[in-house]
Design a protein that fits this description.
Helix content: 10-25%
Distance between the termini: 44 Å
CATH superfamily: Endonuclease/exonuclease/phosphatase
CATH topology: Deoxyribonuclease I, Chain A
Strand content: 25-35%
Number of strands: 14
Strand order of the largest sheet: 3-4-2-1-14-13
Number of domains: 1
CATH class: Alpha Beta
Length: 263
């Protein structure tokens, strides 16, 4: 069985009872079947803790420990989902392979990007390596700590070089961003005159989008983190809003530029 909802959230720490309750409440309210949490700030997670946070149905999980009180990723899913048994844990990402209900497989990678520029360059290379090892339909989601266009931030204080590296990564791997409905930014520094940035996003390969053509990405409000939670619905596309697909080979066709000029 395919999941219907994936919850993606930088929780800024999962080691307090209040934060665990918030995660549980949100997962229940959106009926999440896969939960991808970044910045858990936990060096280990016992099965009993997972059950306490998400319930007994979430018996399967893969975990990247934090380094001290920094980082950490948890991906957990309900036991009725068809996990292939294949997974990988890298420095800044966790990847899991699921069976597709109609046959075939697909990969989910949850990321938590680092802060420093040198680390960000290594992070993008890590994701290239992950993609080489995760063949077929692929979706990568989480807090990238990167932007690839100026409109992803509400001021001009950003590195154009790093922005260009992220954009090249997306183009080189032929990834598409799933549009976020109802919200432009996903992070705020929560000041009187806030800095707002789109740090959290979902990217997918074209063949993954063909598997899940009705995908819809929305956000939820949170008082517990400066990042807003994202809810990826795999069968929830808004009626009549199927996305336009631009094929890379079109500009090579005879008469393409004439048609565009005339239009």
């Amino acid at each position: 069985m395919d999941p219907s909802k994936i919850l993606i959230w930088n929780v800024r720490g999962l080691n307090s009872r209040a934060r665990q309750d918030s995660v549980r409440e949100l997962a229940l309210s959106v009926k999440a079947e896969v939960v991808c949490l970044q910045e858990t700030k936990m060096q280990s997670i016992a099965s009993s803790t997972l059950i306490s946070v998400l319930g007994a149905e979430f018996s399967e999980y893969v975990f990247l420990p934090s380094i001290g009180a920094s980082g950490g990723i948890l991906v957990a899913w309900k036991n009725h989902l068809r996990f292939t048994g294949a997974s990988r844990v890298d420095n800044h990402s966790v990847s899991i392979q699921f069976h597709k209900q109609e046959g075939g497989t697909w990969w989910l990678t949850c990321v938590y990007g680092p802060q420093g520029d040198d680390e960000k360059i290594s992070f993008l290379q890590e994701l290239r390596n992950v993609r080489e090892g995760c063949n077929g339909p692929w979706v990568v989601a989480g807090d990238f700590n990167l932007i690839y266009k100026a409109s992803d931030k509400n001021n001009n204080n950003f590195s154009r070089a790093m922005m260009g590296r992220f954009r090249r990564f997306i183009n080189d791997l032929d990834l598409k961003e799933i549009p976020l409905h109802g919200r432009r930014f996903t992070w705020s520094n929560q000041q009187m005159e806030p800095v707002l940035v789109r740090l959290d996003r979902v990217l997918c390969s074209v063949d993954w989008e063909f598997l899940f053509p009705d995908v819809l990405l929305q956000s939820s409000a949170s008082q517990d983190s400066d990042h807003c939670p994202l809810i990826l619905g795999l069968r929830d596309n808004i009626s009549g809003s199927r996305r336009f697909h631009f094929e890379a080979f079109w500009p090579k066709l005879e008469g393409f530029h004439d048609i565009v000029r005339d239009a």
